[in-house]
Structures are given as C-alpha cells and as structure tokens.
Design goal:
single chain, about 300 residues, alpha/beta, Rossmann fold, 2 domains, eight-stranded mixed beta sheet, two-stranded antiparallel sheet, 11 helices, about 45% helix, binds S-adenosylmethionine
Length: about 300
C-alpha cells in the first residue's frame, strides 16, 4: 500500500502525514497533553484481559486542532462512544471563545449504561456507567453545554437533521465502519455539509482491508477530494502492532476539505444523486428487520410443525 505520493491512473495518491506534523501546520496553541490524557482516561481508555490501554488519544488532539483552526460553528459527530471526541471538540470551541455547538449521535443514549474502562485518578477500573454519570461527575458544564446528544442510529438521526434543513461545517464520521453504513454516513453528511466544510473519517486502515472506510475513500472520495490520511497512535500495547512505528501503524483519520478538491463537488456529487444514494442506504435497516422477522416466522412455523408431528 503506497504511503507516499504514487501515480494512480493519473491521480496522486493521498498524502500521508503524522498527526503531530499536521497539528503543527494548523498552528494555534494547544492544551497540555495532560489535558487530553485526563479526558482520555475518563472517556477513551480501553481494557483487554485485565489490562488497560490509552488507545488513540491523539484523535482528540487532531479534532481539537482542526476545530480551533477552522472554527466551525455547527459540528456533527456520528458515533459518540463515551464522548472523548465530542468533549475535545467542545474544549476547542470553548478555547476559541466563539459560538459553536456539537450534535453527536449514537445508538446508545446519554443515560444508557455501557461497559466503561476509566481512570479518574484512583487507578484504572471497569464499571457500568452512562455518559451522563461520568460527564456530570468529571466534565465542566461549559463543555457539556456545547454538546447535544441524540440517541438513535445514524440512519434515523441524520434523516431527522436533513429534514429539519440543518447545515454542518464539520463532521466527524466515527460510527459503524462497515462499508454500507459508513457510505450512508458520508453521503448523508454531504447533504448536511455547508461549504466550506470539512469531514474527518476515523479508521482508514491502510494496511488491512477490515473496514469499509478504506474502500469508500479509495474508490469514491479520494478521486474527488484531495484527501489526506493523518496517522494517529492507535496501537494497542501488548498487541502484535505494539512496536510498529506510528507512521507505519494501521490507523489513520482521513480529512476531506471542500476547499481542497480535484473535481467540482457539485458535479462529482450532485445533490439529487447524493440524496438518492442516502435513500437507498436508509432502506437497509428496514430490509434487515424484515428478513429477521421472516426468519423468526419460519423458525416458529417449523417448530410448531414439529410439535404437531410429535402429537
Ligand atoms: C468508536 S465509537 C465512537 C468514539 C467517539 N467518536 C470518540 O471519539 O471517542 C463508535 C460508536 O458508534 C456507535 N454506532 C455504531 N453504529 C452506529 C450507527 N449506525 N449510528 C449511530 N451510532 C453508531 C457505537 O454505539 C459506538 O458508541
């Protein structure tokens, strides 16, 4: 997989850059790393087999620097998780001193308990906690107040935002990374995006083929945008990748900027075509629901048939 610029059907492959280099080019002052470390320990720590890992706290550094630099007023995050990304972006909005809010969507709502690895200063531990519990205990209200949390899948929540005529300047796509879902999320984001806008996609994995993000970026987005792959430290210590240099590790965020394009966006992504693609993807969950209902019905019929035979 090429990491440097290499010809691809006359098009340059996307630029790869380390997060620290990218953040330096964006300029502006940054909070001390200890601030990201604390927020990460509260909302992004991961656990495996009794061990705890600070995985990819650098994504927060990148989100912070991008929001400080571009000063978006309306931000959408797809996939809230435990809130690390949203809180880093809220911190950037606060530090910029201007207006700005974040809408973040997730199947899990603010009050839904989830398995939570955290270290609040008393050592790492596992607990079953909701975002509301952790945020209210540990996060300043001025950050929480910048964030609107919507519960639901990206299919339904983004449809709601589109129908309300909402517009976004910055979108962080970090929900389900399978191809049909991430494709829906990106095209729905294009319907919401107001130029000049930026989209950041998590989990572009240049080495592995595990995720749909890579396919979508390579096939449909990089030919239109001058996409940039920004490498963050997503290594899991103790995993085979532990000793891989970060620049070669299998973790990058892809930045798409409406002001850095290879083709005109209105020609490459005409609104009517994008809207059609989104509608097609929106039918997926309904089709899957119906298939699952059909499967249950067939199973019930088969078991009642067997019960009659036994009588
Ligand atoms: C990797 S986490 C998000 C991490 C978060 N963005 C951060 O910066 O810490 C992915 C989240 O996406 C949510 N998710 C997965 N599929 C989704 C979908 N189709 N719609 C909304 N949320 C989804 C999951 O529930 C999970 O909380």
């Amino acid at each position: 997989m090429p990491r440097d610029r290499t010809a691809r059907e006359g098009v340059e492959w996307m630029r790869h850059v380390d997060v620290k280099e990218k953040v330096a080019t964006l300029g502006g002052s940054l909070p001390d790393w200890a601030v990201f470390r604390r927020l990460g320990d509260l909302t992004k720590l991961r656990a495996r087999e009794g061990r705890f890992f600070p995985v990819n706290y650098e994504s927060g550094l990148l989100l912070y620097a991008l929001v400080r630099h571009h000063r978006p007023r309306s931000i959408l995050e797809i996939g809230t998780g435990r809130g690390f990304g949203a809180l880093c972006m809220a911190m950037a909005l606060e530090d910029s001193g201007g207006p700005g809010t974040i809408v973040t969507v997730d199947m899990l709502g603010a009050d839904d308990p989830q398995e939570w690895a955290l270290d609040d200063g008393s050592g790492p531990r596992m607990a079953r906690l909701s975002r509301r519990e952790v945020w209210e205990r540990h996060v300043e209200p001025r950050l929480r107040d910048r964030i609107v949390q919507l519960k639901g899948s990206s299919f339904e929540t983004l449809r709601g935002l589109i129908d309300e005529g909402r517009e976004m300047d910055f979108v962080y796509v970090d929900g389900d990374h399978t191809y049909p879902v991430v494709r829906h999320d990106v095209y729905a984001s294009l319907l919401l995006a107001r130029p000049p806008f930026r989209l950041l996609l998590d989990d572009y994995t240049p080495l592995s083929h595990l995720y749909g993000v890579r396919r979508l970026v390579d096939e449909e987005l990089d030919p239109v945008f001058e996409a940039e792959a920004i490498h963050t430290d997503g290594r899991w210590h103790g995993q085979p990748e532990e000793n891989t240099p970060v620049a070669q590790s299998d973790q990058a965020q892809v930045l798409l900027d409406s002001e850095r394009v290879r083709k005109r966006l209105d020609e490459a992504f005409p609104r009517a075509k994008v809207a059609r693609i989104v509608r097609v993807h929106e039918t997926w969950p309904r089709v899957l629901d119906r298939l699952s209902a059909l499967r249950s019905l067939v199973r019930d019929l088969a078991s009642s048939g067997r019960a009659k035979e036994r009588k």
